Amino acid sequence: MIKLNPLTQKKLRRFRSIKRGYWSFVILLLLYVFSLAGELFVNKRALLVSYQGTLYFPTYGEQMSGKEFGLDYDYEVDYRSLQKKFQREKLGDWVIMPIVPFDPYEMDYANEESTGFSPPSWKAGHFCGTDKTERDVFARLLYGFRIAMTFSLGYLFLTYLIAIVAGSVMGYFGGKTDMVGLRLVEIWANVPFLYMVIILVSVMPGWWGVGWQVSSLLFIMVLFSWTGMTYYIRAAVYKEKARDYVSAAKVIGAGPSRVIFRHLLPNVISTLVTFAPFTIAAAISSITALDFLGYGLPPPTPSWGELLKQAVGNLKTAPWIVISTVSALVLTLTLVTFVGEAVREAFDPKKFSTYE
Amino acid sequence: MNNMKKIKSFISPLIGCITLFFLGCEDPKLKQPRETKSDQSERNSTNSDKVDLAFTRELAREFAREFVQEFAKQINYKSFTFDANQSTGASNNSVLKTGLVDANGKPNPLLSHCSEDVLEFYQKNADCFSILSPEKIPNDLEWQDGSKEKEFSSPKAKRGGIFHAYMRDFPRTLRTIGPDANGGFRSYLLDNNVIGLTHAHPNSDGYYPGTANEWAVGNDGRTVYFRLDPSAQFSDGKPVRASDYFFFFYFMRSKHIQAPWYNDFYGKDKFQKVTLYDEQTLSVRFYKAKPDVVERVSIRPKPEHFYSELGGEYLTKYQWDPEPTTGAYVALPENVDKGKSVTLVRQDDWWANDKRFFRNRFNPDQIKVSVIRDNDKAFEIFLKGQIDAFGLAKTEFWYEKLANDHPLVKNGYLTKVTFFNQAPPPSYALRINSQKAPLDNLDIRLGFHHAMNFDLVLERIFRGDFVRMNTVADGFGERSHPNLKARRFSVDKAVESFAKAGYSKRGKDGILINGRGEKLSIEIMTGYKHFEDVLVVLKEEAKKAGLEIKLKVLEQTSAWKMANEKNHQVIFSAFGTFVELFPRFWEPFHSDNAYQEKGDLKYQENGKLKSGLTTKTSTNNFTQTAVRELDHLINQYREEEDLGQITKMAHRLSKMIHDHAVWVPAWKKPWLRVGHWSWLQFPDDWGPKESTDYEEFQVFWIDTEEKKKILGAMEKEEAVSTHPSVREYKKYMTK
Description:
A: mainly alpha, MetI-like fold, 3 strands, 3% strand, B: 22 helices
């Protein structure tokens, strides 16, 4: 584990003292944790079923067929109608459903009248209404958020990993390594990002599962966007390596990797941290944009871009989609930006250049 | 010193180059010709082009003759004599028999105006073109003139007004043939406009006269005789000549039009012989005595006087210079606002103005077609009254965006029309690639059929307005199978079929697995982004039957490419169909379009496919169907000439393909839905039963007084009608 130097620790303390950014960070964290546990709150599967004296917890685990609950079909049991059935029969069986009893994929065609785009209703359980095929917008928003956030964190981690390695190598060794490396980075940075993503996504084999497709989309995006951070790392490493403690470490006999990761990196980290929230915001926007254009996640994966696309096409007929999606997007991006601002302020070296 | 020399040696060629460059600028021949705007000079330039062409050809011939003689001398080919008349390649005798030229080599009077190149073409293809004396017309022909057919236009129609329409993209050319000519705008120039020999009557199986007054099918059942209407003329005032029908084939078979499909379609093997008898009579011999032979050989005259002949410059020369037409509307170069609009003008003294089947049609004085690139934007412009009509087939347009209680409809300004038509629908279907595992197993395909819940799609997404398509050949009247039904959604039947194929256990996620633990997963690909919701519903419903569907929604072109390469498992797509007497089976279901190996070579003794066959790409057989019995029947079907037999065979073929289970029929629209401003008026029964579009038969008219009235009422915000103007025409509704 990297041992943070006292200056960095001080910066983190300062971040905590900036209330707006700190609370934004906490809220964002809570939202993400909430979305990770989304199956417990927004799901078509019941939380708890008591049938003939036995308790079932269907949320996680295998799909349970209708026959297991005395119904006449073999496919997954419809817990909402099961609940109604149990209430009618009054045999002591019961079902506890999550707060929003829908998952992001299923079409709620139970309502005889519905032909898509049902407005928000507390009674039906659709807090944000439904989309064209009667899927719950709230469920799609929540699971879309989970995917977008996970995606962005993965994106952040991978781009930084590559950028740190490439940047430190160039900065630390300098000379010809730096010269050649930097040229390669510049060339790579000139490959048009969006076109490459569009081309590569369209040739992705369809038999890959959704998981594979999402991760490959992530890799493709990382592949073409790690270059931006490299410059900063390289510059920071250049600056730091001239310091005495680096020479001291070298004299003791530390190899390049030890110097880079043990001594340089903790001092360079502040540069990285200030950029992180903005990278996340950029990643969320670009995955949304790609989905909007139809080059992102394969349908019917819940995604904000897909929701936005539906919203734009049906502004007048289904305003609730655009309202809820845009609000969610604005809220998330605002929170991330607040965090970013706070981090930047906390890590601003000028704060520490004056003697206190 | 050395350096100086080097520099000098560089300088002199440099100066040379510069001088050449400046000289080149002075030389008018090296300059780009200036575009001249005046009509007169353009016409002059085309004339001089012609002179040039004739001159160069003569020169080339002279050179060639000299060269050949010189060459013969060189190789000591003593007996060589040069005969100018033999240059056509056909022996003199056979050419003489065709009557194209007389004994002196002079062209027949009917062809006296033809250019040399055109004459040469006719003589080279002397087996295709002939001129016979009028006595050679058989006496026992039953001439028909369509007088028994009813008119389909309305006597109430009034001429006048401007019809405003829109197109998504500006046409790339005003040619109707050749590269880029096949765009949506072509129908204004050609399909809905130009008059051919005869036309299929859109309300019956008969025909009505066009540039031919009368027609008769010969005893062989494949030669059709036409008596031409002497009043027929082109829009430039020149009469239609009998030789314009010869020229049609010269044109369509020319390499210069760069349209291989047409080269082939109008090729020698289909249109075997065209014969002129006199200025008023001709006959065309088709390769088969098809029941609809009259329609198939009813070609449109090509204005020979306009083209004279074709050369390498065809594409560029006529790019924006439309040919004279026999139709009512003319596109003139001065009415083309490039990138914005094209205005077609109605000829006042059109030759067919008072003809029985053309009167009261083609009513507006002008048709202005403007470019609006976005469909939603076009709709908004339509609501403002700047477009006269708009297709409302999409459910959201019909029910939400222009609902019956929309103020424009409620006040009677706009009319919403549902017209039940009878025409083959576009073939929306899931096409299963029967070559790809696990779909090579019939049981899996049957299960897949039963796992597709189209009933729910039709009921919910299309609100019960669309109906299920049932066979591969719906909408062909008698030729469609009378009682074959598409397989309905049934979890039990699907699960049963899948179990037969070994997928009998449900996995942890409810998807069926087989003995080897493989999941039952099938990918559906499509290029239709707007039908993603349909596929999402199918996917979710298929889970009930234990089938996992993976969706791949691509750009249209890439989806098309994948399917053409036969790389798909299942593709959701549609082919456009047009009104024909009987459906086509060879293209989508014959094994010759699935594998490279010809005919029965692909089959073993027992009728099963051999292994190691080579897939044939770029064909319409998206299902990779290869069944020996089906092949044989399709071959017979293609040869058959009797309509009764054709009907029977079409039924059998539909049933066989149904049993082979490679084609999951989706839906069809039994109607046309159109919104139009109420000043646009239509006949009492709205249109002919085969209408697939409101502009197709041009039977509507613009009531200019009504237009004034409506615009006035809109200004005062008064209603012109007390009830919403929503109309339904059920005359041609089928069960």
